[in-house]
Amino acid sequence: MIARTAAKHGDRWILNGTKHFITNAHAAKVFTVSAVTDKTKGPKGISAFIVPRDAKGFTISRFQPTMGLRGSHVAELVFDQCEIPAENILGPEGEGYSAALRTLAHGRVGIGARCVGASERCIELSVAYAQQRKQCGKPIAEYQLIQAHLAEMAAETMPPRQLAYYSASLLDAGKPARREAAMTKLICTETYGRVVDKAVQIHGGMGYCKDVQVEHFYRDARITRIYEGTSEIQKLIIARDLLAG
C-alpha cells in the first residue's frame, strides 16, 4: 500500500508522505519516488517522480541499523509539502505502478543470482574448514555426517543456479519472466538460507563468531527472503500465474 500522495499545483507537484528502508539514501543525489496521484483508480492512479536531494520539503530522516548487510545503509525519506517541477514526473501520469512491476523481474533474478554465488562461497569456506579442522586426531571432513552436509549444500545449490541462468536468459531476450523471476527469487533465497545454516553448523562454535566469514553470510542471508517481495509473495505470484493459465 503506497501512502505517499502527489497533487499538481500549477507547474509544480506537491508530494507528502514517507518511505522507509531506502538503501544508501545518504549517498544518493536523485530519488525515484512513487506516489498516489488519483485515489479512485487503484494501481492506475500511481505515478513515478524524480526527486532531487535538495528539493524543498524533502528530508532524509533516521537511519535504521540492521542485522546484516551493514555496508548497505537504509534510511527513511520524508516528504512534507515537497515541491518538484511538473516535468519531474517519470513517464505518463498513472504509469508508475506498471513501470515498477517491469523492473521487479530484473531485481528478483539479480538477488537470486547473488544468493547462488553466496551459497557457493559458503560451500568453499566449509570445505576448506572441514579439511583443516581436526577432531579426535583427524580432519572433520573425514566424518560422514560432515560429508553429508557438504553433499546436501552442493546438491541444493545446483538447481537454483540453473534456474537463475534460465530466468536471466529470458530477460536478456526481452521475454516475459514474471513467473520465472518469482521462482528464482523464492528458490534461490530459501536455498541460501539452508546452505548457510549448514555452513555455520560445519564451522561449529567458530561459525557463530565474527572471526569467520560464514557468520556475516548468515546474517546477510536472512533479508534476502524479505526484500524485493517476500517468499510468501513469490508463492502467490507463482500460484496466481498458474491459475490464470
If you had to describe this structure to a student in words, what would you say it looks like?
With 245 residues, the protein is α+β, with helices and mostly antiparallel strands. Helices cover 47% and strands 23% of the residues. It is built from five helices and nine strands; from the N terminus they run βββββββαββαααα. It has helices at 96-132, 144-172, 178-203, 213-223, 231-243, and strands at residues 5-9, 12-23, 30-36, 46-52, 58-64, 74-85, 89-90, 134-135, 138-139. It has a four-stranded antiparallel beta sheet with strand order 1-2-6-5, with no helix packed on it. Helix 1 (96-132) runs antiparallel to helix 2, helix 1 (96-132) runs parallel beside helix 3 and helix 2 (144-172) runs antiparallel to helix 3. It is elongated, with a radius of gyration of 22 Å.
